[in-house]
Amino acid sequence: MAEANIVADDQPPPPEARAFKGFTHRACEYYPCHHGVRRAFNCLFCYCPLIERECPGPYRLFTDMRGTTRKDCSACRLAHDGIHPSWAFIQRWLDAPPFRGQPQSRARIRALSQALRQKPRTL
Ligand code: SF4
C-alpha cells in the first residue's frame, strides 16, 4: 500500500497533498505579524525567499550597519495572504533575477512580470 503514495521526482504532487504549501501558526507571539491579510494567513514564508530576488512587493530600502542596501518588507502581505495564493506567488517569483538594491518601481515590476510570464512554469 505504501507504494501508492510514492510520486516520481519529476511529477507534480497529487492535488490532495497540499499541506506543504503553508500553515497558520496562531500561537506565535508575533501573529499576525503583517496586517491587512484577508485570506488564511500563511506563516510558511515568515522569512521570505524573495528577500534576495527582485519582487513586486511594496518594500522600502534601508542601509544596514555594514552599508548594505536591504529591503524593509514590513508593509508586504504577498508572502502571507492565502495559503495557495502565497505559495503560487513565491514559486513564480523565485525565477526573478537577484535583488541589487534598486528602489521599487511599477515599471520594473511590469517588466519583470512580463519576463516571468514567458518562462515555463513547473508547479
Ligand atoms: S517585499 Fe514582500 S515579496 Fe518582496 S521580499 Fe519582501 S516580503 Fe518578500
Structure explained in plain terms:
This protein has 123 residues and is α+β, with helices and mostly antiparallel strands. It has a domain at 41-123. 19% of the residues lie in helices and 7% in strands. The chain has a two-stranded antiparallel ribbon with strand order 1-2. Strand 1 and strand 2 (69-72) form a beta hairpin. The structure holds iron/sulfur cluster (SF4). Iron/sulfur cluster (SF4) is lined by residues 48, 50-51, 55, 57, 59, 71, 73, 76, 78-79.
Distinctive features:
Cysteine-rich small domain protein, alpha+beta, about 120 residues, binds iron/sulfur cluster, single chain
Helix-strand layout with pairing:
Elements: E1 60-63, E2 69-72, H1 83-93, H2 106-117
Antiparallel strand pairs: 1-2
The structure holds iron/sulfur cluster.
Residues 48, 50-51, 55, 57, 59, 71, 73, 76, 78-79 line the site of iron/sulfur cluster.
Biggest sheet descriptor = 2 strands, antiparallel
Share of β-strand residues:
5-15%
Structural class by secondary-structure content: alpha+beta
Fraction in helix: 10-25%
Radius of gyration: 17 Å
Question: Care to count the β-strands?
Answer: 2
Q: For the residues shown, what is the average pLDDT?
A: 88
Q: List ligands, each type once.
A: iron/sulfur cluster
- Globally, the shape reads globular
- Please give the count of helices: 2
**Termini distance?**
26 Å
Low-confidence stretches: none
Element pattern in H and E: EEHH
Strand order within the widest beta sheet? 1-2
Organism: Thiorhodovibrio winogradskyi
Protein name: Cysteine-rich small domain protein
